Amino acid sequence: MRRHWQRLCEGVGRHRGRLRFEIVAFLLVGGLQVVLDTLVFIALGALGVPVFAANVASRLAGACLGFLVNGRVTFASADGHGLDPGALLRFVITWAVLTTLGGLLLVQVDQVFGLTATWLAKPMVEAFLAVLGFMSLKYFVFARRFR
């Protein structure tokens, strides 16, 4: 009986360690994504691209980086990475939903406070979406049950 509990506790410890790694890696990759996303968003906005379109384009730039790195490192399984056609489809669905939500929030900020305010709001909107994104990537996009 004691051996059973010892193995169970070791498994929980490994799971906690893996989750901690996933959170830290996701935050590091996410930080790079936010920088890329925000720079592209500001550049496109300064060039006169409408807020919603600029948001879609900038998120796409960040998404490409995020899918590759998170799939190969952050949420990779023990037997290899999580980059397969199914994961890509689930990623596209998740990305479309989160991008639409973020775009609608930024359009509201633009209508109420103006374009410059969207440049300041963009990182905050992305931080909110990052929480939703982590859960989506971990439990839907790169979930082991889909492999």
From TrEMBL:
It holds the Pfam family GtrA_DPMS_TM. GO terms for cellular component: plasma membrane. Residues 26-142 form the GtrA/DPMS transmembrane domain. It comes from the Bacteria. GO terms for biological process: polysaccharide biosynthetic process. Belongs to the GtrA family. It is found in: Membrane. It is a multi-pass membrane protein. It comes from Alkalisalibacterium limincola. This is GtrA family protein. InterPro entries: GtrA_CellWall_Glycosyl, GtrA_DPMS_TM. Keywords: Membrane, Transmembrane, Transmembrane helix. Its main location: membrane. The chain crosses the membrane at residues 21-44, 56-75, 87-107, 119-141.
